[in-house]
Amino acid sequence: MILPQTSPNEHFTYGLYRTWPEDERWELIDGQAHAMTPAPGPLHQEVVVGLLRVLDDFFRVRGCKVYVAPLDVRLPDSAGQADDDTPTVVQPDLLVVCDSRKVDALGVRGAPDLVAEVLSPSTAYRDETDKLLLYERHGVREYWIVNPRTGRVAVHALNTSGMYGKPTVYLNTETLRSVAFPELWVELSTVFGAIAY
After folding, report:
1. How far apart are the first and last CA of the chain?
2. In sequence order, what are the residues at sequence separation of 6 or more whose Cβ sits closer than 8 angstroms to the Cβ of residue 171?
3. pTM for this model (two decimals)
4. What span, in angstroms and rounded, lies between the C-alpha atoms of 160 and 157?
5. Which residues, in sequence order, are CB contacts of 147 under 8 Å at separation 6+?
6. Confidence (pLDDT) at 6
7. Which candidate, 89, 74, 95, places its Cα nearest to that of 34?
8. Is 52 left (phi over 0), alpha (psi -120 to 50) or beta?
9. Residue of 41, 18, 182 lying closest to 121 (CA atoms)
10. Residue 5's pLDDT is what?
11. What is the dotted CATH code of the domain comprising 38-192?
């Protein structure tokens, strides 16, 4: 078993990742290992549950699946790349998959249609930088960056050039309107609940 290190010289793949202890949470971004500890706090989890309720209600009747972390999402560099050689595997807080062929016994292979990351102090920088570029590159149609401390949600949607343009930012008192799913409107007050801002 080759255990993960955080040295920039180390390069890991999903094949190695699968040999690591199950009681540790890691992500791989372009072969670099990133620890997913410590566990998120109660504020983070309250927002995840609020989003899960809304998204599950909307997508269940549309034939799409909503998943919560931890669930491995493998993002191969090419369609033919073997799972064991894939250098990127992430565990988004919430994800929506509308193509059932992407779901298998290991998790999800390929870009979800929608990803929501709820910021934690230990992962915020990576969610707002590395994962933003990663999700854009792999074709995630819409990426929500949710800040539970400020009550803001930044919605990044792929444009016709396959790029994320300037995000639309919503406050906790506003109604989020999805670009990729125009019928999806989210009253953010129901997501953020009784959190005082």
Report:
1. 46
2. 151, 152, 188
3. 0.93
4. 10
5. 119, 124, 153, 154
6. 54
7. 89
8. alpha
9. 41
10. 59
11. 3.90.1570.10
Six-digit token string for 121: 């102090």
**Angle CA 5–7–12, to nearest 5:** 60
Amino acid 27 reads E
Inter-CA distances, 49 with 32, 69, 93, 153, Å: 29, 11, 10, 15
Note down pLDDT in tens along the chain; length 197 residues: 555 655 566 899 999 999 998 888 899 999 999 988 788 889 999 999 999 999 999 999 999 999 999 999 999 999 999 999 999 999 999 999 999 999 999 999 999 999 999 999 888 999 999 999 999 999 999 999 999 999 999 999 999 999 999 999 999 999 999 999 999 999 999 999 766 55
| CB neighbour list of residue 43: distance below 8 Å, 6 or more residues apart | 148, 149, 195
* Residue ranges per structural domain of the chain: 38-192
- Residue 7's SS3 state is coil
What would the 3-class secondary structure string for 111-147 be?
Answer: CCCEEEEECCCCCHHHHHCHHHHHHHHHCCCEEEEEE
The three-state secondary structure class of 16 is helix
> How many other β-carbons are positioned within 10 Å of the β-carbon of residue 97?
22
**Residues contacting 39, CB < 8 A, separation 6+:** none
Q: Find tokens 């997913």 and name the residue.
A: 36
Which residue in the block uniquely carries the two structure tokens 């074709």? 139
